[in-house]
Amino acid sequence: xxxxxxxxxxMCTVEVSGAGKLSLQDALSLIERAAxxxxxxxxxxxxxxxxxxxxxxAIVDIHGLPEYQDTFGAPKGIKIALxxxxxxxxxxxxxxxxxxxxxxxxxxxxxxxxxxxxxxxxVGKPDVP
Length: 129
Description:
Elements: E1 3-8, E2 13-23, H1 24-41, E3 45-56, H2 59-62, H3 65-71, E4 79-83, H4 91-103, E5 107-111, H5 114-121
Parallel strand pairs: 2-3, 3-4, 4-5
Antiparallel strand pairs: 1-2
């Protein structure tokens, strides 16, 4: 599956994007790569665009993803916007991830459009913690 994690300087944001099947191993790899970039660049925002993805991660595994973020030193309070898949997903799974993130100190929210996610992140405003 073609996934990419990069720092978008003009947005002051780490962006995760790609398409296809998203397995647990893929999710763990993306989290690690994003956390490293967040720390390296001092970013406080992550835009994860799953609009062209098909999530294949069990609910029991979703619960542990925010804890995995902790192992890579992702800063608490970081804003994480998820652009939800257009098809073939359970919205309740993404809502569960939002809750699990919030319980670990991450400000996470899912959106049905990239525009809404970018607006919520405050892209274009100074990247101040």
